[in-house]
Amino acid sequence: MKPVASVLMLCFVTVATFTKPPDVIWRKFEELTKVSPQKNKEKLDALAVQLDNEDGAVAYLVSYAGRISCRREALTRARLVREYLASHGKVDPNRIKILDGGYRRDWLVELWVGHKLARPLTETYVDGRLSRNQVKVRAKCNGASVAF
Hints:
Layout: E1 27-32, H1 37-53, E2 57-65, E3 68-70, H2 73-87, E4 96-103, E5 108-115, E6 136-138
Parallel strand pairs: 2-4, 3-6
Antiparallel strand pairs: 1-5, 2-5
């Protein structure tokens, strides 16, 4: 009988798996209010640390103008917050999205955190807004009146 050579062949197969974006529920991190500018800055610093600690995390700033407000006040306030975070080199501005939430009794900026692959935060997450007939938009405002 002739010896039969046995050959052991090992095959390694790499299988690419594609994952769908995670079903992330956006979580509200904090709120900025008119109570104290110093406390608001502390909250923003904490947000910067949170984004730094979470790989792939992004933030949404949902900004509301007050019942009596300036034109485009909500967006202006949100842009000031994003500039604060970016100017101190704490957060890449591309990781911060802005959403105009409309109006509330007093101005408010909600800080939301989620994963960059999550579906965008939309108005369905926000509630408690005032209707347009409950709001008075001032015709003239000075820039100093809008801050965080």
